[in-house]
């Protein structure tokens, strides 16, 4: 599948029905367009099975709750919708995007309690998120923006509005020839990339930022469990930027990123080492098991 995302063949699940791809539209006065009242999930299907599908559906509902936006579907109904979209598009290996939002209704101010909460599921073929960086190691810029305090935003929600600084930072990084950007948090600790969590290796042990100011990714949790099953020590802790100088390896994790090696963050460089390769290979086997 190629071309503009609004001009493709296929079906999209929208509010309980499968509709033609080009007909999956919303009104210009949709509340989410003006006030970011939207939550979503990014998932991947491998061989017809969506990896960690139920966990993603549960998180979608939780994100809606955190935004005071109850989604009118159960986990089971969301699961049915995702698999119906895959079947309708004849896809077995695909990216799956479930999204829920405040639609157009009686309210068109900040408050929108009377507006309906709508939902859609779209699926499409999508290769490596970082292209050839998945083999040779991604190059990351350091973002000028910081991940905000949990006192200012619902950091446990996968909410569209939280990605505004991600888009800005990734555009700035790409203009410098980088694949992505690394955020610090509001305290100055290393946080995450624009759409992926980060891991570091030093002396055979793994260090990853404590997820207390950003989304605790499902892939992140999967990798931590995998490493511990392998007997590898994992430290979830606050990491200062200058510590990156002493780390030997680095990788990113996320549904889109999967496991992507990192060769450089700002002025800090890393080798694409044996542990990074092993984790990437083990994850690939796991998602296709």
What does this structure look like?
With 289 residues, this protein is α+β, with helices and mostly antiparallel strands. It folds into 2 domains: 11-124, D-amino Acid Aminotransferase, Chain A, domain 1 (2-Layer Sandwich), CATH 3.30.470; 133-287, D-amino Acid Aminotransferase, Chain A, domain 2 (Alpha-Beta Barrel). The chain is 26% helix and 30% strand. The strands form 2 sheets. Strands 7, 8, 9, 10, 11, 12, 13, 14 and 15 form a 9-stranded mixed sheet that branches. Helix 2 (53-66) crosses helix 3 (75-88). The longest helix has 14 residues, at 53-66. The two termini are 26 Å apart. The mean pLDDT is 96.
What does the secondary structure layout of this molecule look like, with pairings?
Elements lengths: L10 E4 L2 E4 L10 H5 L2 E9 L2 E2 L2 H14 L8 H14 L5 E9 L14 E8 L8 H4 L1 E10 L16 H12 L4 E6 L4 E4 L3 E6 L2 E5 L8 H12 L4 E4 L11 E6 L3 E8 L2 E2 L4 H14 L2
Parallel strand pairs: 7-8, 7-14, 11-12
Antiparallel strand pairs: 1-2, 1-6, 3-4, 3-5, 5-6, 8-9, 10-11, 10-13, 13-14, 14-15
Helix pairs in contact: 2-3
